[in-house]
Write the structure tokens for this entry.
Amino acid sequence: MELLKVFIIQILFASLPVLLVPSFETFIRTRLPRLMLKNDGDSVGIAFTFASAASLLMCWFLDAGSTRIDGHLSLLPTGMGILYGIKKGVFPLVALYGIIGSIFAQIGEAPYVWVETVALLILALSRPYLLTLSRTRRRIVLISWLLLTYAPHAFFHIQEYALVSNHWVAIPRVIIELLAGITAGLLLLYSRRDAQDRYLLTEEAGVMRERVIEEEVKLKAFMETLPGIALMLDREARITNINDRAFGAVSSRIPTITREMIIGQNFSKLMESMGMRAEPAFLQALERTIQENRNVEHTMALDGRTFNMYFSPTYTDHHEAFGAVCSIYDVTEIERMRAELEDMNRLNLIGQMAAGVTHEVRNPMAVVRGYLQILQRKTPEEYDHYYKIVLSELDRAGGIIDDFLALARTKQKMNERRTLRSVVDDLWPLLQADANLRSQTIRIEEGTQGEEMPMHPGEIKQLILNLARNALEAMGDKGELVIAIEDCNEHWRLRVKDNGPGISDETLKQIRQPFFTTKKTGTGLGLALCSGIAERHGGKLSIQSTVGVGTEVQIDFAKVQAYEKEQVVVES
């Protein structure tokens, strides 16, 4: 029983690094980063060196205080520390063994301690070679080294027991100590490998954690850079992540909601809490993205606005789709611009048609008109009425052709510098005559003359005349037309205001389209023509109308300095 206790105690203290290395390694890795840097980051080697030194001290200390425990097993942790610890700790361990062994050695034991110190020194010098051996060969060499190194000390113990009693009594104790040493050695070997594997796993886990964090940061940065709303959803349509723009859209409807409350919530339930309904097509697009493992696009109308949605699948490490990233963009303005572009293309087509009509129709019409006038002089007077009707219609057709030509005109030389007020003054007699014929009034508000600006006076006159006549035709008797010129800081504003019946919202949406007209004899080109003239002069035409109150057309012309800068940019 006593030998069993000795066996257990010997193993416990000789294999003390098995218990100490894990905690030492964690402490060194977390609290002593500089020490790790000095030793190439080998926290396991540093921990093994310190644990071996602690085991060495404990073995000798207990050997000195007990007659049942012999300190020679401190050879084992010291040897393991020399072999598997850090390179800088090899010779300090040899020196520590020699010093501690000499201090705690019994009478007559010191020479054996010096022999063991020399054996440890040989092991230290052989370390580079031993580390190149295979694991099995290294174990055989270590066991052989331990037996040879312990042989003198075993002889000392046999002699020591022979002095007290029979030397055969020492043999079982020596065998027990050798078995304890071999057992402790195996434990130390496996503990070193286990600590190293745990360290490698910790390093890999750290690298993977950093990679996951890096990918998460990249994904978050990517979602934040998206100009629209971005959502990440799983198979069950639960929200797993959102960008700031999406959170802002939700919080504008639910001010008390937080990002944590949104994450994990089902998309349909979130829409219900916002007082809206999730489009079935949205959920179908999400399901199709995951099942078919491909990108899906979908367009949705909501609250009078148009949204484009793009679904892209997200994958697991095994490249299996487990969810999708949904990007939502408000394309209402883009659709409006697309409609305007279509109008511009239509105007371009009209311009091409006008050029062809001019050459193909105008000249024959002039010939026809000329011959009609000749025939009119040779025909009895009772037929003059018919000729007047035909000539009037020809003139009307010529006017339509002229409108086509004006609409097709894309560039005119701004060959004069005049004020808007001077152009209005030139037209004043004609405008006043038109108003008097309809029993209407017209007036020009007193105010600024405006600055001189580059313009084509003929086009500006046509612009003002068209707007004024449209207003006069829209008003009934006693109607009043007001023309004003205002200074609005960065631009000059020309206002043409009437107190007619006004324009409905539905008509106002279509009024700028070519060929759209509410007049019985109109061509629907007048307002499109006015818009083109305004744009060529750096202006912008807008219409404000209230049914039953009247209509006001505003044209904002950029001031000379801003307009000339714009022209330089366009030309460059």
In short: The longest helix spans residues 170-225. The two ends are 104 Å apart (CA to CA).
